[in-house]
Write a structure and sequence with these properties.
The chain has about 280 residues and is an alpha/beta fold. It has 3 domains: about 120 residues, no CATH class; about 55 residues; about 40 residues, no CATH class. The protein is about 25% helix and about 20% strand. The chain has a 4-stranded antiparallel sheet, with helices on one face. Strands 2-6-5 form a 3-stranded antiparallel sheet, with no helix packed on it. The protein has a two-stranded parallel ribbon with strand order 8-11. It comes from Pantoea piersonii. This is Phage tail fiber protein.
Length: about 280
Amino acid sequence: MTVSSTQSYVEYNGDGTTTSFTIPFYFLLNSDISAMVQDASGNVSEIVNGTDFSVTGAGDSGGGTLTANSIYPSGSTILIYRNPPVTQETKYYENGKFPATSHEAALDKLTMLIQEYGWKFDSLTLQKPSIFANYYDANGNRIANLGDPKDGGDAVNKNYADAISDEGRTYTDSQIQAEATARKEADTAEANARAEADANIQKQLTGNVPLEASAFSVISWHKQTVDNSVTIPDYMNAWSFGPAITVTPGQQVTIPEHSFWTIANGQQVNNSGANVDYGEL
């Protein structure tokens, strides 16, 4: 007999009622048929010929029938395939007969083995889409049990990617927390400084502490030297109290065309102490 078809497997969808499945290809022995079942969750199990199912039709060019001992629910898939043992059992004797039937059966088995490994290679291996392609195509399938990468061009599994993501998230969270803490500390320091300044102003308003160069105190003061260069803004009147103001060498006071700087030269009081008459300034 010839092996005129390239088909060596068939799939069926479970429906919860069917137990008889057609095998539409030629096989030599009933024991050459194997089957696997995948449930709706993707779990695969191999069912055993002679225990979980029986087969009829060996040697028939039209195929045969697999009869399952259980029903398979909707969502499950049954794969029936030809799986002859990888053996060569045809024996010829020197000067003996050369029967066509046994010789053809041996050739049929070789063809079946080639077909089996052909469809398994085409269906089960990760392949390039063509001989010219420089990449592998998983055809939308998951790649499971992938090891951790070692070299820069290695593929990365989900656990490894998640660990990197978690590490980055932890680092980012710590940076955010550190920044938030720094901002809170800065806000607290600013609030304390404002509170201290407000308290100082209150003291100045009550006359307890003179404010430097301020209108809130009866007596105010400033340095007699300009230690750092100063630029008076446009259209502004600036003033200082004399009798003299000295600009430190290397520094300068810049007075725009429409601004003025007045140095007031009032009455000088040099004495201090109790019951001193300062006179009228």
